[in-house]
Fold this sequence. Notes:
mainly alpha; elongated
Amino acid sequence: MSDSTPDPSAPRDPFEPPTTPPGMIPGASAPGMIPGAAAPAGYGAYQAGAPQSGAPQGPLLDRNGQLVEPPVTLAKAFLIVTGAVAALTVIGAVLVPGEVDAIRDTLETGELNVTAGVFLQTLTPLLMVASLVTYGLWASRIRRNVEAAGRPAGGPRSVEWWGWFVPLGNMVLPVWGARAISRGAVGWGVLLGWWLPWLASQGAQGAAGAAQFMAIDITSGELTNPEALDQIVPLTWISAVAIVISWVFLRAYVAGTTARHLEAARAQA
């Protein structure tokens, strides 16, 4: 066997589309061929974006004239950025008892304490912006690919960009758009496994921030309700655990959609 021959036992990249022609069992011989014999030239060249029987001949292009290919690089970049956000959230939960003590000392003495949490609070918003941009780019490419394959993606147009910024609507619009582009590739279980823990994480973070304000008198800036600060630690940990769970399902959603969106769109066209 030559060095260039793929090893069928090697694990497949979950982001890559299937290489088996539709209807064929992976590793099976070409129809009419003796098992083990070489397949005809061009057989097994099935890949995302390649024209199949009944499809127009020539490269498959999207509405912008770009060659339809699974956005593997964008998918991996998005997951790296969001994984970093999840990691920083966990680190923040580990450090939060010291952060609460620093807040209490600052309110009681008036002296500002600069801690590691300050740097995390600066870095996390930057990573969140990067995650929104990479998600928007990835989801937009998936949407164009699905439409090029013959099935309208559905859902609000370009919701992957603006749906996050609609008050109250941002609790539904992003996952609605995700369902539109991933239909047939991943199920509702994966999407809700990503989305519901994400909402829980954001809610716990918001509650932790509110607890800090509830601890002080806004007019005087004095610490009047120190018990409220005790809520920050458990709320931060709830947020950290929820965002890790969310990221696990997010990876399944992004990898599954990247690998199977064209196949699913053709089946539903």
